[in-house]
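Predict the 3D structure for this chain.
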Amino acid sequence: MTDESDKVFWNQVDAFIEQANQACEAQEPSAVSAALLQAAARFNAFVVAASSIDRKEYIVEMEPSLNYLTDNYRQLLRDNLEDYREHYKIYIQAARDAETDD
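Done. Predicted structure below.
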């Protein structure tokens, strides 16, 4: 990615997270997480279908796309879980401490 496209990408990521954080004010984080997963699955199915020339190509691309997307998700999730493990006190404990100060 170029610097500009990288900036656009991370701005979009931050916008999705902000929307999820706002949704957590009205519902449980696990419900928001489930909705995000469903939305990502639905959107990625659309991207695969829309990128295909026809239904035949789509059917051929389904399994490779499924493998690519699940492998990518697994790695992204692993990276983020590790990041939270390394920075737990910063990301979680500090936020909890701030809540008790209110």
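The chain has two domains: 1-51, 53-102.
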